[in-house]
Amino acid sequence: MLTPLSISGLTLFQVIFAWQMCFAAILVWQNPKSRCLVLFFVFQALLCVANVLESAGYSLAGYVITPAFTVAMGPVWYLSVRTLVGASGSGLQSGRHLLLPLASLGLTDFVQPLIALGSVMLLCYLVASLKLLRDYRDTVYQVHADAPTVGLNWLTWLLGGYVVLSLTDFVRMNVQPITPMPWKAYWYFAHEVGFFGILSLLLVGVIKQPHFFNRLAQYQALSQPEEAAQDKQLAQSIFEAVDAQIREQALFCQPRLSIQHIADQLSLGVKQVSWAINSVSNNNFSNYINEIRLEQIEKQLADPAYAEVSILSIAMDNGFNAKSTFNQAFKARTGMTPTRYRTHCRVQSTV
After folding, report:
1. Distance (Å, rounded) from C-alpha 34 to C-alpha 309?
2. Alpha helices in 30-110, H assignment, sequence order
3. Which residues contact residue 301 at a Cβ distance below 8 angstroms, ignoring those fewer than 6 apart?
4. With 90 as the cut, is the pLDDT of residue 45 above it?
5. Collapsing DSSP states into helix, strand and coil, what is residue 258?
6. What CA–CA distance (Å, rounded) separates 261 from 255?
7. Cα(first)–Cα(last) distance of the chain, in Å?
8. What is the pLDDT of residues 106-115, one digit of tens each?
9. Residue 136: CB atoms within 10 Å
10. Mean of the pLDDT values across residues 303-311?
Protein backbone atom coordinates (compact mmCIF):
# COMPACT_ATOMS: atom_id res chain seq x y z
CA MET A 1 0.00 0.00 0.00
CA LEU A 2 1.29 3.46 -0.92
CA THR A 3 2.12 5.83 1.89
CA PRO A 4 2.51 9.61 1.54
CA LEU A 5 6.03 10.64 0.64
CA SER A 6 7.46 12.64 3.54
CA ILE A 7 8.67 16.18 3.10
CA SER A 8 11.97 15.18 4.72
CA GLY A 9 12.52 12.62 1.95
CA LEU A 10 11.92 15.21 -0.76
CA THR A 11 14.15 17.68 1.06
CA LEU A 12 16.97 15.14 1.32
CA PHE A 13 16.71 14.42 -2.40
CA GLN A 14 16.85 18.14 -3.23
CA VAL A 15 19.99 18.48 -1.09
CA ILE A 16 21.60 15.57 -2.96
CA PHE A 17 20.50 17.12 -6.24
CA ALA A 18 22.08 20.47 -5.29
CA TRP A 19 25.31 18.78 -4.24
CA GLN A 20 25.44 16.85 -7.53
CA MET A 21 25.01 20.05 -9.54
CA CYS A 22 27.79 21.81 -7.59
CA PHE A 23 30.04 18.80 -8.18
CA ALA A 24 29.14 18.91 -11.89
CA ALA A 25 30.06 22.62 -12.06
CA ILE A 26 33.48 21.87 -10.57
CA LEU A 27 34.10 19.03 -13.04
CA VAL A 28 33.13 20.93 -16.21
CA TRP A 29 35.29 23.87 -15.13
CA GLN A 30 38.34 21.69 -15.86
CA ASN A 31 37.65 21.77 -19.63
CA PRO A 32 37.72 25.30 -21.13
CA LYS A 33 35.44 24.21 -24.00
CA SER A 34 32.66 23.06 -21.67
CA ARG A 35 33.23 25.74 -19.02
CA CYS A 36 30.16 27.58 -20.27
CA LEU A 37 28.04 24.91 -18.55
CA VAL A 38 29.28 25.94 -15.11
CA LEU A 39 26.59 28.63 -14.80
CA PHE A 40 23.98 26.13 -15.99
CA PHE A 41 24.82 23.66 -13.23
CA VAL A 42 25.09 26.43 -10.62
CA PHE A 43 21.62 27.62 -11.68
CA GLN A 44 20.25 24.11 -11.14
CA ALA A 45 21.91 23.95 -7.71
CA LEU A 46 20.39 27.31 -6.69
CA LEU A 47 16.95 26.09 -7.80
CA CYS A 48 17.30 23.03 -5.54
CA VAL A 49 18.40 25.20 -2.62
CA ALA A 50 15.43 27.53 -3.17
CA ASN A 51 13.09 24.54 -3.22
CA VAL A 52 14.52 23.26 0.07
CA LEU A 53 14.27 26.65 1.81
CA GLU A 54 10.74 27.37 0.62
CA SER A 55 9.53 23.88 1.56
CA ALA A 56 10.91 24.58 5.05
CA GLY A 57 8.95 27.84 5.26
CA TYR A 58 11.81 30.24 4.52
CA SER A 59 11.44 32.96 1.89
CA LEU A 60 13.24 36.07 0.64
CA ALA A 61 11.46 39.05 2.24
CA GLY A 62 8.20 37.12 2.00
CA TYR A 63 8.61 36.35 -1.73
CA VAL A 64 8.43 32.86 -3.26
CA ILE A 65 11.12 32.96 -5.95
CA THR A 66 10.98 29.44 -7.39
CA PRO A 67 8.39 30.44 -10.06
CA ALA A 68 10.98 32.93 -11.37
CA PHE A 69 13.40 30.01 -11.77
CA THR A 70 10.77 28.30 -13.93
CA VAL A 71 10.66 31.36 -16.21
CA ALA A 72 14.48 31.41 -16.38
CA MET A 73 14.95 27.69 -17.12
CA GLY A 74 14.33 27.96 -20.89
CA PRO A 75 16.73 30.88 -21.50
CA VAL A 76 19.41 29.21 -19.35
CA TRP A 77 19.20 25.98 -21.40
CA TYR A 78 19.28 27.89 -24.69
CA LEU A 79 22.17 30.20 -23.76
CA SER A 80 24.19 27.22 -22.47
CA VAL A 81 23.71 25.27 -25.71
CA ARG A 82 24.41 28.36 -27.82
CA THR A 83 27.66 29.07 -26.00
CA LEU A 84 28.69 25.39 -26.12
CA VAL A 85 28.43 25.23 -29.93
CA GLY A 86 29.83 28.73 -30.47
CA ALA A 87 26.76 30.24 -32.14
CA SER A 88 26.76 33.97 -32.83
CA GLY A 89 25.51 36.43 -30.26
CA SER A 90 26.98 39.24 -28.19
CA GLY A 91 26.69 39.62 -24.44
CA LEU A 92 23.97 42.23 -24.95
CA GLN A 93 21.95 39.86 -27.13
CA SER A 94 22.35 37.10 -24.54
CA GLY A 95 21.24 39.40 -21.73
CA ARG A 96 18.05 40.14 -23.63
CA HIS A 97 16.88 36.58 -22.99
CA LEU A 98 17.12 37.11 -19.23
CA LEU A 99 15.01 40.28 -19.04
CA LEU A 100 11.69 38.47 -18.56
CA PRO A 101 13.06 36.10 -15.86
CA LEU A 102 14.43 39.13 -13.98
CA ALA A 103 11.11 40.97 -14.32
CA SER A 104 9.26 37.92 -13.01
CA LEU A 105 11.04 38.29 -9.64
CA GLY A 106 8.65 41.15 -8.92
CA LEU A 107 5.59 39.13 -9.92
CA THR A 108 5.99 36.10 -7.69
CA ASP A 109 2.53 36.65 -6.15
CA PHE A 110 1.12 35.32 -9.44
CA VAL A 111 2.46 31.80 -8.97
CA GLN A 112 0.28 29.83 -11.41
CA PRO A 113 0.53 32.37 -14.30
CA LEU A 114 4.32 32.43 -13.89
CA ILE A 115 4.49 28.63 -13.89
CA ALA A 116 2.39 28.50 -17.06
CA LEU A 117 4.53 31.19 -18.72
CA GLY A 118 7.75 29.46 -17.67
CA SER A 119 6.57 26.10 -19.00
CA VAL A 120 5.69 27.56 -22.42
CA MET A 121 8.98 29.49 -22.55
CA LEU A 122 10.94 26.34 -21.64
CA LEU A 123 9.40 24.35 -24.49
CA CYS A 124 10.03 27.17 -26.98
CA TYR A 125 13.65 27.57 -25.90
CA LEU A 126 14.24 23.81 -25.96
CA VAL A 127 12.97 23.69 -29.56
CA ALA A 128 15.34 26.57 -30.41
CA SER A 129 18.18 24.64 -28.74
CA LEU A 130 17.39 21.54 -30.80
CA LYS A 131 17.54 23.67 -33.96
CA LEU A 132 20.97 24.95 -32.90
CA LEU A 133 22.15 21.37 -32.43
CA ARG A 134 20.86 20.47 -35.90
CA ASP A 135 22.82 23.37 -37.40
CA TYR A 136 25.84 22.27 -35.38
CA ARG A 137 25.60 18.74 -36.81
CA ASP A 138 25.32 19.98 -40.40
CA THR A 139 28.24 22.39 -39.98
CA VAL A 140 30.54 19.87 -38.29
CA TYR A 141 30.14 17.47 -41.20
CA GLN A 142 31.14 20.26 -43.58
CA VAL A 143 34.26 21.17 -41.58
CA HIS A 144 35.69 18.15 -39.74
CA ALA A 145 36.81 14.77 -41.04
CA ASP A 146 36.17 13.28 -37.58
CA ALA A 147 32.65 14.71 -37.33
CA PRO A 148 31.21 11.77 -35.30
CA THR A 149 33.76 12.29 -32.50
CA VAL A 150 32.88 15.99 -32.05
CA GLY A 151 29.19 15.53 -32.80
CA LEU A 152 26.53 16.18 -30.19
CA ASN A 153 23.90 13.63 -31.19
CA TRP A 154 23.81 12.42 -27.59
CA LEU A 155 22.90 15.93 -26.44
CA THR A 156 20.13 16.10 -29.05
CA TRP A 157 18.61 12.89 -27.67
CA LEU A 158 19.05 14.17 -24.13
CA LEU A 159 17.25 17.42 -24.94
CA GLY A 160 14.52 15.43 -26.67
CA GLY A 161 14.02 13.47 -23.45
CA TYR A 162 14.00 16.71 -21.49
CA VAL A 163 11.27 18.06 -23.79
CA VAL A 164 9.08 15.01 -23.11
CA LEU A 165 9.68 15.28 -19.35
CA SER A 166 8.97 19.02 -19.47
CA LEU A 167 5.66 18.44 -21.23
CA THR A 168 4.49 16.12 -18.47
CA ASP A 169 5.87 18.53 -15.86
CA PHE A 170 3.91 21.32 -17.54
CA VAL A 171 0.75 19.32 -16.90
CA ARG A 172 1.81 18.54 -13.33
CA MET A 173 2.50 22.16 -12.33
CA ASN A 174 -0.69 23.51 -13.86
CA VAL A 175 -2.96 20.96 -12.19
CA GLN A 176 -1.32 21.27 -8.77
CA PRO A 177 -4.32 23.10 -7.23
CA ILE A 178 -6.63 20.15 -7.95
CA THR A 179 -4.20 17.26 -7.34
CA PRO A 180 -4.59 15.37 -4.02
CA MET A 181 -1.58 15.80 -1.74
CA PRO A 182 -0.16 12.23 -1.74
CA TRP A 183 -0.19 12.02 -5.56
CA LYS A 184 1.12 15.57 -5.86
CA ALA A 185 4.18 14.54 -3.85
CA TYR A 186 4.73 11.30 -5.77
CA TRP A 187 4.39 13.05 -9.14
CA TYR A 188 6.78 15.81 -8.09
CA PHE A 189 9.32 13.32 -6.80
CA ALA A 190 9.14 11.24 -10.01
CA HIS A 191 9.85 14.31 -12.12
CA GLU A 192 12.72 15.39 -9.89
CA VAL A 193 14.27 11.93 -10.31
CA GLY A 194 13.81 12.23 -14.08
CA PHE A 195 15.46 15.65 -14.23
CA PHE A 196 18.24 14.43 -11.95
CA GLY A 197 18.87 11.52 -14.33
CA ILE A 198 18.96 13.72 -17.44
CA LEU A 199 21.32 16.27 -15.88
CA SER A 200 23.57 13.46 -14.63
CA LEU A 201 23.71 12.07 -18.17
CA LEU A 202 24.57 15.57 -19.41
CA LEU A 203 27.55 15.61 -17.04
CA VAL A 204 28.67 12.14 -18.16
CA GLY A 205 28.37 13.16 -21.82
CA VAL A 206 30.46 16.28 -21.33
CA ILE A 207 33.16 14.34 -19.47
CA LYS A 208 33.27 11.53 -22.05
CA GLN A 209 33.51 14.01 -24.93
CA PRO A 210 36.19 16.58 -24.07
CA HIS A 211 36.39 17.86 -27.67
CA PHE A 212 33.75 20.21 -29.03
CA PHE A 213 33.60 22.24 -32.21
CA ASN A 214 32.49 25.49 -30.65
CA ARG A 215 32.87 27.73 -33.70
CA LEU A 216 29.44 27.36 -35.25
CA ALA A 217 29.10 31.09 -36.05
CA GLN A 218 32.37 31.08 -38.00
CA TYR A 219 31.49 28.18 -40.30
CA GLN A 220 27.68 27.97 -40.25
CA ALA A 221 27.39 29.44 -43.76
CA LEU A 222 29.07 26.29 -45.13
CA SER A 223 26.00 24.21 -44.28
CA GLN A 224 23.69 26.57 -46.17
CA PRO A 225 22.94 25.81 -49.85
CA GLU A 226 24.40 28.17 -52.43
CA GLU A 227 21.75 30.51 -53.78
CA ALA A 228 23.44 31.32 -57.07
CA ALA A 229 24.75 28.77 -59.55
CA GLN A 230 28.52 28.94 -59.80
CA ASP A 231 30.92 27.81 -62.51
CA LYS A 232 30.99 24.00 -62.55
CA GLN A 233 34.35 24.06 -64.30
CA LEU A 234 35.78 26.16 -61.47
CA ALA A 235 34.34 23.75 -58.92
CA GLN A 236 35.94 20.83 -60.76
CA SER A 237 39.29 22.61 -60.90
CA ILE A 238 39.28 23.41 -57.16
CA PHE A 239 38.12 19.90 -56.31
CA GLU A 240 40.94 18.29 -58.34
CA ALA A 241 43.51 20.45 -56.53
CA VAL A 242 41.99 19.56 -53.15
CA ASP A 243 41.73 15.86 -53.98
CA ALA A 244 45.32 15.71 -55.21
CA GLN A 245 46.61 17.48 -52.10
CA ILE A 246 44.73 15.11 -49.78
CA ARG A 247 45.84 11.94 -51.59
CA GLU A 248 49.45 12.85 -52.38
CA GLN A 249 50.21 14.07 -48.87
CA ALA A 250 48.03 11.40 -47.25
CA LEU A 251 46.21 14.11 -45.29
CA PHE A 252 43.28 11.73 -44.84
CA CYS A 253 45.45 9.82 -42.34
CA GLN A 254 45.12 12.70 -39.88
CA PRO A 255 42.19 11.85 -37.56
CA ARG A 256 41.39 15.51 -36.84
CA LEU A 257 41.83 16.82 -40.36
CA SER A 258 39.82 20.01 -40.90
CA ILE A 259 38.74 21.83 -44.01
CA GLN A 260 40.52 24.92 -42.70
CA HIS A 261 43.86 23.06 -42.84
CA ILE A 262 43.36 22.11 -46.48
CA ALA A 263 42.18 25.58 -47.46
CA ASP A 264 45.25 27.14 -45.84
CA GLN A 265 47.60 24.78 -47.69
CA LEU A 266 46.05 25.67 -51.04
CA SER A 267 45.62 29.39 -50.24
CA LEU A 268 41.89 29.10 -50.86
CA GLY A 269 38.85 30.18 -48.87
CA VAL A 270 37.13 27.59 -46.68
CA LYS A 271 33.83 28.29 -48.40
CA GLN A 272 35.39 27.69 -51.84
CA VAL A 273 36.80 24.34 -50.78
CA SER A 274 33.52 23.28 -49.17
CA TRP A 275 31.53 24.34 -52.23
CA ALA A 276 33.84 22.43 -54.59
CA ILE A 277 33.69 19.22 -52.52
CA ASN A 278 29.89 19.39 -52.19
CA SER A 279 29.37 20.17 -55.88
CA VAL A 280 31.69 17.56 -57.39
CA SER A 281 31.65 14.68 -54.90
CA ASN A 282 28.04 15.20 -53.75
CA ASN A 283 29.32 14.68 -50.22
CA ASN A 284 30.00 16.86 -47.23
CA PHE A 285 33.63 17.15 -46.13
CA SER A 286 33.48 14.45 -43.46
CA ASN A 287 31.89 11.83 -45.72
CA TYR A 288 34.24 12.72 -48.58
CA ILE A 289 37.35 12.17 -46.41
CA ASN A 290 35.93 8.93 -45.05
CA GLU A 291 35.32 7.68 -48.61
CA ILE A 292 39.02 8.20 -49.39
CA ARG A 293 39.99 6.44 -46.16
CA LEU A 294 37.71 3.49 -46.88
CA GLU A 295 39.02 3.23 -50.46
CA GLN A 296 42.57 2.99 -49.12
CA ILE A 297 41.57 0.50 -46.41
CA GLU A 298 39.86 -1.75 -48.97
CA LYS A 299 43.08 -1.88 -50.99
CA GLN A 300 45.15 -2.75 -47.95
CA LEU A 301 42.76 -5.44 -46.73
CA ALA A 302 43.00 -7.08 -50.15
CA ASP A 303 46.81 -6.72 -50.31
CA PRO A 304 48.76 -9.82 -49.11
CA ALA A 305 51.48 -7.46 -47.86
CA TYR A 306 49.07 -6.34 -45.10
CA ALA A 307 47.88 -9.87 -44.22
CA GLU A 308 49.56 -9.82 -40.80
CA VAL A 309 48.42 -6.29 -39.93
CA SER A 310 45.29 -6.13 -37.78
CA ILE A 311 42.17 -4.55 -39.26
CA LEU A 312 42.00 -2.04 -36.42
CA SER A 313 45.60 -0.93 -37.04
CA ILE A 314 44.87 -0.42 -40.72
CA ALA A 315 41.78 1.64 -39.87
CA MET A 316 43.64 3.79 -37.34
CA ASP A 317 46.60 4.31 -39.69
CA ASN A 318 44.18 5.65 -42.29
CA GLY A 319 42.60 8.26 -40.04
CA PHE A 320 39.74 6.56 -38.21
CA ASN A 321 39.96 7.04 -34.46
CA ALA A 322 36.95 5.01 -33.33
CA LYS A 323 36.36 1.33 -34.07
CA SER A 324 32.57 1.64 -34.06
CA THR A 325 32.62 4.55 -36.52
CA PHE A 326 34.94 2.64 -38.85
CA ASN A 327 32.90 -0.59 -38.77
CA GLN A 328 29.68 1.27 -39.45
CA ALA A 329 31.14 3.27 -42.35
CA PHE A 330 32.85 0.23 -43.88
CA LYS A 331 29.72 -1.92 -43.82
CA ALA A 332 27.65 0.92 -45.28
CA ARG A 333 30.09 1.18 -48.21
CA THR A 334 30.79 -2.51 -48.92
CA GLY A 335 27.81 -4.33 -47.41
CA MET A 336 30.26 -6.50 -45.43
CA THR A 337 32.11 -6.30 -42.16
CA PRO A 338 35.88 -5.63 -42.49
CA THR A 339 36.69 -9.20 -41.37
CA ARG A 340 34.34 -10.75 -43.89
CA TYR A 341 35.67 -8.46 -46.63
CA ARG A 342 39.27 -9.50 -45.93
CA THR A 343 38.27 -13.19 -45.96
CA HIS A 344 36.36 -12.67 -49.21
CA CYS A 345 39.41 -11.07 -50.84
CA ARG A 346 41.65 -13.97 -49.75
CA VAL A 347 39.22 -16.51 -51.19
CA GLN A 348 39.01 -14.59 -54.45
CA SER A 349 42.81 -14.41 -54.75
CA THR A 350 43.11 -18.21 -54.45
CA VAL A 351 40.50 -18.94 -57.12
Report:
1. 38
2. 38-55, 66-85, 91-96, 99-104
3. 311, 314, 338, 341, 342, 345
4. yes
5. strand
6. 13
7. 73
8. 787 787 788 8
9. 28
10. 89
